Amino acid sequence: TWVGMLFVVSFASCLDIAAISMDMGEALDTNKEMETVGKANLMSGLLFGFTGSYIFSQTIFTYRTGCHSRYIGVFIMAAYLAVCVSTINI
Question: What is the pLDDT of residues 27-63, one digit of tens each?
């Protein structure tokens, strides 16, 4: 099953990169983007995490709002952590 997961994540990442590139109207370096996804998934696997890909909707939303800071990712991570450790049911 891990081989299937490898193909699914790879294919989904390619589609995400293509969709983001189309929405931005400029070409992305697909090799660099796939390398970034691969490194992130390797680190996640070594730390017993889940595989991942781009969050397409978040990337497009951030791009369209004009936010070009990397701090948006830190903010979202903090929000997710706050929800996870919160004792309040949402």
Answer: 888 888 888 888 888 888 888 877 766 677 777 788 8
8 Å CB contact between 40 and 32: no
Which amino acid, residue 15? L
Residue 62 structure tokens:
């951030």
For the chain, how many residues are written?
90
| Centroid of chain to Cα 84 | 19
Q: Is the dihedral of CA 23, 29, 33, 38 positive or negative?
A: positive
Three-class HEC string of 15-34? HHHHHHHHHHCCCCCHHHHH
Given a contact cutoff of 8 angstroms between Cβ atoms, the answer to whether 44 and 85 are in contact is: no
